[in-house]
Amino acid sequence: MEKRQDSTHEHDNQNHHVLIVNGREKPWKEKSITFEQVVVLAFGTYDSNPNKVYTVTYDRGPHENPEGTMVKGDTVFTKNKMIFNVTCTDKS
What we know:
Blueprint: E1 17-21, E2 24-28, E3 32-34, H1 35-43, E4 52-59, E5 68-70, E6 75-77, E7 82-90
Parallel strand pairs: 1-7
Antiparallel strand pairs: 1-2, 3-6, 4-5, 4-7
């Protein structure tokens, strides 16, 4: 067997995990993530247009930040299978 997908395998550690962003699995290698990075995972890009408002909520996070909301400039610690919900509203 060349490939093993057991979640307890040595490659599935703090440096390799999956975030659930808007219901889709996204690979992530960092111990933390910024507000802007979450938006990019959700929509593929971050638009700094002041008429666009992004809302980010998260759940199933590590003990440092188990759940909450994020605003521009925020950074949170991540863990495997952490859930992020991101929406975009156009104020125009």
